Amino acid sequence: AAALIDTLTFRAYQANRERIDSKNLCAWRIKVPDWLDEMEAWKTRDFEDRSAKPPDLTAKSIQESSAETGLTPILWLEELDKFGPTLSRRKYLYSLIDAVYEANGTIIATTNMSRKQLEAHIDTDDFPICRRVTGQNDDPERFMVWELGHCAGGNRPGEKVKKVAKSTITA
Fold it and tell me: Please, which residues bridge with residue 27 across strands?
């Protein structure tokens, strides 16, 4: 979290120095279940309803923001395990994660599941979400995954943090 805050502070400082819009730091933090609900509501809307608005964050908005600012995207996904995975929800989430991945951005994901449990919960052959987040099958120099303990206070007493493999999953 400290590294993320430092990166965003530096981006805000640079934006101020260069007199560009500091509101667009090319970084987003979402709760996955809420974002998926918004995306699903938008995709299944009544086209007669002119008041329906798309979610603020989409794969396209990530691509546009990155191109506009020249910054690599940072996406913080909270509660990655707390949604009922359907084909359409996996597709929406995968497109978002893939936009960050393709721009060599940073993905931070939090979950209460272990990596194996999360893979079983959300991955399919068509939408390998965990593989994109963890960089499995990619250059290990670009990815880092941390799995922390499964207790309310973080790690169990005496337990060391295990560096598994620039994406982060915490359990």
Answer: 74
Distance CA 91, CA 117 (A): 19
Residue 11, pLDDT score: 65
With a threshold of 0.85, does the pTM exceed it?
A: no
d(CA 97, CA 129): 7
Dihedrals φ, ψ of 158, to 5°?
80, -5
d(Cα 133, Cα 117) in Å, to the nearest integer?
14
Helices (H), the chain: 2-17, 32-43, 59-69, 87-102, 115-122, 129-134
Whether 133 and 169 have beta carbons less than 8 Å apart is answered as: yes
Q: Inter-axis angle of helices 87-102 and 32-43, to 10 degrees? A: 110
Name the DSSP class of 113: S
Distance of CA 65 to the CA centre of its chain: 15
CA distance 55 to 61: 10
